[in-house]
Amino acid sequence: MFHSTSTVGINGSKNMDFVSNNLRGILKKVDAIPNLNELNSYIGKIRRDVIEEGYTAHLTTAGVIGDVFPDGRETKEILDIAAGTGLVADELKKMGFRLIDALEPSKGMLELAVKKYRNVFNQGLSKDPLPFPSDKYDAITICGWHGSAGPLADSLSEMTRVVKPGGYICIVTRMHYVQNLDDYKETFLPECIKLEADGKWKQLEFKGFMGYPFNNEGVKMVFRVC
Fold it and tell me: 59: exposed, middle or buried (C-beta count within 10 Å: 0-12, 13-18, 19+)?
């Protein structure tokens, strides 16, 4: 379980580490910009720059959800965690999904994304319960997770609670994080294995893809909730 033969380029890893280290500053600036037009311009430039450098994680994430729900998409309820400005929602809507909610800690990001979602929740992941009833969603997406693995690991059990039995959880991040960072190896991966051992979910896919800037590899992890 959780094995991949994929590799990550050394120079690409250094460039992506630079991006990750500066992302906190970017998010602080986003939340400090009072004018919506200025905010939209600033975020739009970042999005264009990242996509031009080869970012396709949002396409991969939406593709997973499209594959598992070929029919009845307009009735499926999706929770997009760490939603950002709604890149995943943009793609899901093109596929016919309509009932999409967002969970995002950045108020500035949500201001830009609010029209793309049915409901938006200004909240990050933590040990606290998610603000949703059990068995509410058909799927959860987490695309481009860039933070510490601790909050993500702490929330996995809650995710299995709010997703309906037979529903799906799709997590997309950098392969380098999962394979090489201690907090992923010490918190996230053990929790994934524990949830499967406890019968909470079943891993369906753990697969690398080239879709991060600077020729870096991503990984998509797909689980079916039991």
Answer: middle
Residue 52 in tokens: 């031009």
Of 111, 32, 123, 133, which is closest to residue 80 (Cα–Cα)?
Answer: 123
Separation CA 116–CA 91 (nearest Å) = 11
**pLDDT, tens only, 164-213:** 999 999 999 999 999 999 989 999 999 999 999 999 999 999 999 998 87
Indicate the DSSP class of residue 170. Answer: E
Answering whether pTM is above 0.85, one says: no
Nearest to residue 196, comparing CAs of 162, 157, 161, 164? 157
Sequence-distant (≥ 6) Cβ neighbours of residue 224 within 8 angstroms: 166, 167, 168, 201, 202, 204
Is 226:199 a contact under the CB 8 Å cutoff? yes
- Backbone φ and ψ of 199, nearest 5°: 75, 20
Task: Provide the token pair at 154.
Answer: 């702490």
For the chain, how are helix, strand and coil distributed in percent, rounded to 5? 50, 25, 25
